[in-house]
Please model this.
Amino acid sequence: MVITDQLIAYKTINNLLKQCKTIKQIHQLHAHFITTGLLSLNPCHNQSKILIAVTTIKPTSSSTNLLSYAVSVFNSIPNPSTFCFNTIIRAHTLLSSPLNALLFFSQMRSVSVPPDFHSFPFVLKACSQLGSLSSAQTIHSQALKIGFVSDLFVSNSLIHIYSVSHRLRDALYMFDESSHRDVVSYNALIDGCVKSGDVAKARELFDKMPFRDSVSWGTLVSGYAKSGLCKEAIQLFHEMELNIRPDNIALVSALSACAQLGELECGKRIHDYIQESRIRVDSFLSTGLVDFYAKCGYIEIAIEIFESSQDKNLCTWNAMLVGLAMHGHGQLLLDYFSRMINAGVEPDGVTFLGVLAGCSHAGLVDEARKLFDKMESVYGVSRELKHYGCMADLLGRADLIKEAMDMINKMPMSGDVSVWSGLLGGCRIHGNVEIAVQAADHVMELKPEDGGVYKMMADLYADAERWEDVVKIRTCMDAGKVKKIAGCSLIQLNGVMHEFVAGDDLHPQTDDIYVVLNAIGKHQNEPC
DNA sequence: ATAGGGTTAG
Model:
């Protein structure tokens, strides 16, 4: 190779491009490229280097500027090569503009620039970002025609898109058909099994794969946690610790399992591990920790972690709000909600579930009504059945049964079990038999196997001394169909799990527990 | 230059 001044300048600029942190720096280098004539040396290749540099910039406010710059660079290339097209498609997938990525791909096809084995993974990623299975199928057929499906990256991209589109059979087909598979093929398919609800199949693949990396472990731990198999999730996490260093993703999933189960000791150990290993607490981990401590009863620690967290996202805020709601801290929750809005975080449906549930528990009726009104008009969050359910519960508790009934009648959709059960709960508290009968009819129609309604109606009639009706209800219950699912709760104390089922007396300290419970009950009835 | 796993609610 002949070392020329031009080559040195080219290499320097190439390295400088890689180090660019801002769009301004790229502009300067781009200008330099033009003025020194280096751009004309190999225009297609060098312009693409600029495009690649653009995509490595961390988007600050919006990626729109970066993309429009990238497009203008692309448009200045007279006859873009495959490499150029790949780069502009890649830029759009990286900066979350998948539709445009697909449009560039179709432009590429229409001007007969042949795609290569780099093109397909980019384009398929755009399909998965769009959630468009049909586009993926089209791309798949093109890849098949040109003969790229045997490429490992292409076939893995296809396994992935079919997995996330809940097309497990297609994902399995791709997996079985691919001549060579690697750990990524297995991981993508394991995720597909999890997403299609077949955790057993996921486990089977996990057990038989020749090599497992942290993604394999993390996928299955989170799969178990999401499928409600929390004990399995924690067990697998412990097994993982013996084999490989858990990363943030595995830690988050394990924390979620601990939170769901109330596994205080296990979750604390994870927290200790995070601190000892000086793991950077990202927004996912802070969410996991806040949720975990809140669910295990330690709302103060949850608040502490939330406040000290450097990295919060919508879920972190939601976990905090839901935690405060669970603990009955209604006023504090409203303060946090305002802080969230002021911080520029856009609330979603979960946010409002937390806020409304919190108001309900704290009896903050006016506040809830106002926020419920503003949900769509001010915050642009659509009011779903769950939110109406919260309102029915809140109004019912506050003895505003008529208002709750009016709300339900005016709803744009028909009420579901949660809405009518919410209203029924209010009727039960305030002894409103008439409305209770209507609400109960709806619940029984929508969920005939629900035993709770019958129990509630029996109690209501008993309070109203309508004994004949009590007998009728009991007869219905005994007649079958009704599943009596007993309420149950778990609490861990000093490392021992205590389990209670409604009405049981199996705990060794049952008598003592009831003495305290009765005392609390009496205390609650006394005026504060 | 290309492929895979994460948190909140229900």
About this structure: Strands of chain A lie at 488-493, 496-501. The mean pLDDT of chain A is 89. The domain at 408-485 of chain A is CATH 1.25.40 (Serine Threonine Protein Phosphatase 5, Tetratricopeptide repeat). The CA atoms of residues 409 and 415 of chain A lie 9 Å apart.
